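lol ok so funny story. i was supposed to be doing the assay writeup but got distracted and ended up predicting the structure for this chain instead. priorities right. anyway since i did it might as well share w the group, maybe its usefull for someone
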Amino acid sequence: SRVLEEVNRRPVAQVGASSKTVALYGLQAARLLADRGALGVAARVDGALAARLDHWLEAKAAQVRRRSRLEYEVQVVLEAAGLQPTPDVVVGHGLSADFRCQAVAGSPLGGREGRVFYVEVD
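and the output, tada:
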């Protein structure tokens, strides 16, 4: 609780281009756990800080993101299976996936209403 309160007391500009990515991910983990009640504390990351954190995590992830040959091949297979993969997507709160796949309605994987799922290639 005291750690999150201290983070909130500092200027929102503390999160920016010069922030270490590993520190941003650590703060994001604390934010998500606190928001879900898993830390057992009342404190939460300030909304403006949370928005800035999301922005800079996405920006930093985009700078270092390169597609591997395996990811390229997985996309080809997903497309051949009739799925509609979108590469390098943000799932939420700074979390990303290699692909967001849309299984269209009426297809074997999409069922009656269609389905969306995420694929991470390691």
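DSSP finds four helices and three strands in the chain. Helices lie at 2-9, 21-35, 47-64, 69-80.
back to the writeup now i swear
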